[in-house]
């Protein structure tokens, strides 16, 4: 992760964050899973990362 920018309320209120990643930091045509440390709408913010989930992923361009 290169940069993140918060918007809205704090973590405890489920803030939305944009995350910017360098194009060279990720392999092309690869599926990456991700997780949240704060509230993601599925788990309470408890200071620990949520578990990885196959429903949370993105695919990088070919």
Provide the β-strand percentage band: 25-35%
Average pLDDT, to the nearest integer? Answer: 63
Order of helices and strands: EEEE
* Count of strand segments: 4
The gyration radius over C-alpha positions equals 13 Å
Write up what this structure looks like.
With 62 residues, the chain is an all-beta fold. It has strands at 3-7, 16-20, 31-33, 57-59. The strands form two sheets. It has a two-stranded antiparallel ribbon with strand order 1-2. Strand 1 (3-7) and strand 2 (16-20) form a beta hairpin. The chain is flat. The two termini are 20 Å apart.
Keywords, separated by commas or semicolons:
two-stranded antiparallel sheet
Write the SSE topology.
Blueprint lengths: L2 E5 L8 E5 L10 E3 L23 E3 L3
Antiparallel strand pairs: 1-2, 3-4
Short description:
By secondary structure, this protein is an all-beta fold. The chain has a domain at 22-61.
